[in-house]
Amino acid sequence: MSLRLANGAKPTGAMTRMLLSALSDQIKPNVRYWGGSGHFTKDVRRCLRGVVTETEPADQNGVRPQRRYYYNQLYPHVMSSNGSLISSSPVWRLIKISECLSATSSNSASCVGTSQERVTTFAYDDRNLYLTSETVAAGDNSISATTTYSYDYAGDLTIVDGPRTDVDDRKYTTYDIFHRPVFQIGPDPDGSGSLPRLAVKHVYDGDGREYLTQSGTATGVDGSGFSVTSFTRRTFDATTGLLIKTEVVQP
Fold it and tell me: 139 with 113: CB under 8 angstroms?
């Protein structure tokens, strides 16, 4: 986007950021989506940074369910010429979604701040702005549940730690050098017991296609002790590369 002032001059860096921020707040015209039956499915309002509201058709009580989206400017970090991390240009990130479990017909947001509001908030790390947590809570904070996300040095998602605190519900993923998933390891099924974790292994051919997907169990969160219980095998045409056969096998 090239910005110019009324006199034709180009704005300064600070002024450019102010103009872009103002433009991002401008609401675009409402867009109505229609279903195949001839009835509209939802109204969507957007601004330059993303969806602002999604409003569904009215229910039997005349209430139009609505989701409201909130954004904030966050600053990723880059390496400077002297080797230190410095803030880069800000980018928009989704930080909250609000929706009502119940509302009034005259106000789709009447639940805000009460137990009938469901609020999903998102947190990001301060370097690459990777999503680090997602919390779903009531509007009055009476209940909440948080899922956290961890990454390796390359930015691949390696651990998803679910909201339960009474059990180990962490799920793990390992990757190859091309950042393709190799092992996907499920939560610990019995804590300190002897049951292994459910696991899936992905195997690729020389063209990068997943030709073998193995399901089974593993004893380690890195896929060690993997034992196959079933697999799906795909065959591709040698000339076109198109998938020509899929086999599901239980040894």
Answer: yes
Q: Give the span between the Cα atoms of 147 and 134, in whole angstroms.
A: 5
CB-side exposure of 88: number of CA atoms within 13 Å? 12
Tokens of 89: 């240009």
Quote the tokens at residue 171. 């799920």
156 and 136 in a single domain? The answer is no
The pLDDT tens digits of the residues spanning 154-176 come to: 999 999 999 998 889 999 999 99
Return d(Cα 216, Cα 224) in angstroms, integer: 12
Mean pLDDT for 49-58 is 81
Q: Is 199 exposed, middle or buried (0-12, 13-18, 19+ CB in 10 A)?
A: buried
Report which secondary-structure segment, H or E, holds 20: helix 13-24
User: The pTM is what?
Assistant: 0.79
Distance in angstroms (rounded) separating the CA atoms of residues 27 and 42:
17
Nearest to 188 by CA among 168, 172, 174: 168
Domain that holds residue 118: 28-150
Farthest CA pair distance, the chain: 75
Q: How far is CA 153 from CA 131, 178, 179, 210, 243, in A?
A: 15, 13, 11, 24, 34
Q: How far apart are the first and last CA of the chain?
A: 58
Task: Report yes or no: 188 and 167 within 8 Å, Cβ to Cβ.
Answer: yes
Token pair, residue 37, equals 């039956």
In this structure, the answer to whether residues 210 and 184 fall within a common structural domain is yes
Domains identified in the chain, total number: 2
Task: Name the one residue in this structure whose structure tokens are 């989506």.
Answer: 33
